[in-house]
Amino acid sequence: MTFIEKLNRAWTDNQSMLMVGLDPDPARLPLELADKPGAIYEFCKAIVDVTADYTCGIKPQIAYFAAQGAEDQLQDLCDYIRSRYPQLPIVLDAKRGDVGSTAEQYAREAFERYRADAVTVSPYMGFDSVEPYLEYTDKGVIVLCRTSNPGGSDLQFMEMADGTPLYLHVASLVAEKWNKNGQCALVVGATFPDEIGKVRARIGDMPLLVPGIGAQGGDIVATVAAGMDSQGNGMMINSSRAILYASRGSDWRDAAQAAAIATRNAINDARDK
Fold first, then answer.
1. 0.85 exceeded by pTM
2. Considering 44, 65, 155, 258, which has the largest number of Cβ atoms within 10 A of its Cβ?
């Protein structure tokens, strides 16, 4: 299946728009895994196992693995998810943004080494920095649009000549020109629900990756109301730390699962209002 097909099926089969982010911080891992070889893999594998039934996808953040020299553990983790949960899309959160042969290598890294279903990219260097990813037509390309961090406004609110803010120009550019194969999505932060609504109005039913709930404080009800597509889905609402680090004690698996279920249910309750 293509990324979009997997995503649509996960939304339906798991009745979930929750995406579980994997940001493994060795200083916050459960006490039983402290200083153990392969701890990052074992931790993330267990999180996937206890949340797989309640999520529309898994989003490893590559920096958390690379900083620990754990790229091989990330590769093993992606292999495990594809083998054990082939129905779940893997979104590699890399936020790459370069041109030419370098972009081609980043695309190979995401789609051939890790065999992710989708990758996040930056549009700042324009179409030729995104084109190498789009050539993998069965894969998803998720473009940064309106990010959840406060500093995002430094550039994303700059106005074009016609008064359109840059983030809405990006939304239109991706939806109208870059998404020729129907494989694109946009990143829009839950911390800015008004902007989510404006992006949704521009792009129709294109999927949104929405970070910023949980530890970042984004409002679920406002996010869902602003971002749903015409089918009542349309979003990958990411939560990482609130699920991963729900407990460091012996109950950490149960605590992570309970946090994922509670978040999935809160999203569905907001959708059904």
1. yes
2. 44
Below-70 pLDDT ranges, the chain: 214-217
Which token pair is 171? 């939304």
Distance between CA atoms of residues 117 and 142, nearest Å: 11
* Phi and psi torsions of 57, nearest 5°: 170, 170
Strands 235-239 and 18-22: parallel
The closest alpha carbon to 15, from 54, 50, 52, belongs to: 54
CA distance 123 to 121: 7
How far is the CA of 98 from the CAs of 59, 129, 185, 243, in angstroms? 21, 5, 19, 32
- Say what the alpha-carbon torsion angle 26, 218, 243, 255 is, to the nearest 10 degrees: 130
Going by C-alpha positions, the residue among 75, 94, 86, 73 that lies closest to residue 3 is: 86
Beta-bridged to residue 184, according to DSSP, are 141
**d(C-alpha 68, C-alpha 73), whole Å:** 10
Distance CA 180, CA 177 (A): 7
Secondary structure of residue 57 in the 3-state scheme: strand
Q: Is 95 a catalytic residue?
A: yes
Which of 6, 95, 139, 273 is flagged as catalytic?
A: 95
**What per-residue confidence (pLDDT) applies to 153?**
87
In degrees and rounded to multiples of 5, residue 138 shows phi and psi of -90, -5
